[in-house]
Design goal:
By secondary structure, the chain is an alpha/beta fold. It contains 11 helices and 18 strands. It has a single domain, classed as TIM Barrel, CATH 3.20.20. It has an 11-stranded mixed beta sheet with strand order 8-7-6-5-4-3-2-12-13-14-15. The protein binds iron/sulfur cluster (2 copies). The site of one iron/sulfur cluster (SF4) has 14 residues, from loops.
């Protein structure tokens, strides 16, 4: 059995995370989602309105000796967002080799992906049974499978259509030859503090347990084209490190960091309404807003006040168990000045 998790630490070098929930516009309305993701109140279509705040964010982190930026776009459906490519171009021009990730429902046409795939290093292709065009999803996935360093099909386990979702995953595996499938149980709501959805039928709970808890079964994959570099690592008691797998931590309930020191100041979260906070967990009050162009980024880490850390990017933020702070704090160059997080 694994020793206790005591930290999430940078792999080779420290990273800035910018998570941008670009708007609340989506071409789907999944029953397990909520209006905050598809309501269409905030389109944020005008790039010129937020270019200066992006400049401020980049300058702040360069001044803190952060050289690596990871930008993660979600939504809504971010591939439909007009400024998507101009924003990526901005980061390409102003930072060194930014890593660009997108969480998409893969509903854009194959032509769109052919034209734009080269902008992305990570694609999380969520499959939503109620709305997805299965053939289009598969055509896109098969096109991307050898072109994207990290591509995962994230199949959402719709409770009533569970079997159909699993059948689709089997079809994807039989038709692709470089796949990476993640079976994603539903949350009671799609937000960062939500608890797991409870599946009444035992066979569904068994399926989830079998496909999540065992490392080999948790994700089916052909290991032919995966990134070699480790960006973040799990640190276990005794000092053993391994590549971070946030899905496994969630499945094992190891995403509970209440009382831990968390360097959330390396994680900017831009909300659909333009509000900017640290982390998707909103552990800080607002630190700026797209519409005003004003931003004040804290330099302190926080003590996590939350029971769960649900978002994959929040999980990958550097953090240490309080009893092990002194043992490891010198091994990465991030200041420890801290404040108490607020609920
Ligand atoms: S595709 Fe994603 S954002 Fe859109 S409605 Fe479904 S779960 Fe919500
Ligand atoms: S919930 Fe927020 S404060 Fe807590 S560990 Fe995750 S990112 Fe850090």
């Amino acid at each position: 059995m694994d020793k206790a998790l005591i930290g999430i630490v940078p792999g080779k070098e420290k990273y800035v995370h910018i998570i941008w929930q670009v708007n609340d516009t989506c071409n789907y309305k999944c029953s397990y989602c909520n209006e905050g993701n598809w309501g269409g109140r905030y389109r944020n279509d005008n790039f010129s309105e937020f270019e200066s705040i992006l400049q401020k964010i980049v300058s702040h982190f360069k001044g803190q000796n952060y050289n690596n930026f990871k930008i993660f776009f979600s939504g809504g459906e971010p591939s439909l967002w007009k400024p998507l490519i101009p924003v990526i171009e901005f980061f390409r021009e102003n930072t060194q080799n930014p890593r660009v990730a997108i969480n998409t429902n893969l509903s854009r046409s194959l032509d769109w992906w052919k034209k734009n795939y080269h902008y992305f290093q990570d694609i999380i292709a969520s499959f939503h049974i109620e709305f997805a065009d299965k053939d289009r999803y598969l055509d896109n996935f098969k096109f991307l499978q050898y072109r994207i360093p990290y591509l995962v099909s994230r199949v959402l386990l719709h409770d009533e259509r569970f079997k159909e979702v699993v059948e689709f995953a089997e079809r994807l595996k039989s038709e692709s030859d470089n796949y990476y499938v993640e079976y994603a149980p539903l949350m009671s709501e799609l937000n960062s503090h939500s608890e797991d959805h409870y599946y009444e039928e035992e066979w569904k709970r068994k399926f989830i347990a079998e496909h999540q808890l065992d490392r080999q079964k948790e994700i089916d994959f052909c290991n032919t084209y995966r990134p070699k570099e480790t960006y973040h690592e799990e640190l276990r008691e005794g000092g053993r490190k391994e590549s971070l797998n946030s899905n496994r931590l969630v499945a094992l309930g190891e995403n509970r960091f209440k009382g831990w020191q968390c360097w959330v100041q390396e994680c900017i979260y831009i909300h659909p309404n333009g509000d900017i906070t640290m982390g998707s967990c909103r552990v800080t009050d607002s630190i700026g807003h797209l519409s005003t162009g004003e931003i004040s980024i804290p330099k302190e880490s926080v003590i996590c006040p939350f029971e769960r850390c649900n978002c994959g990017t929040d999980i990958s933020v550097t953090k240490l168990h309080p009893e092990h702070l002194n043992d490891y704090i010198d091994s990465f160059s991030i200041p420890i000045t801290s404040s108490e997080g607020s609920l």
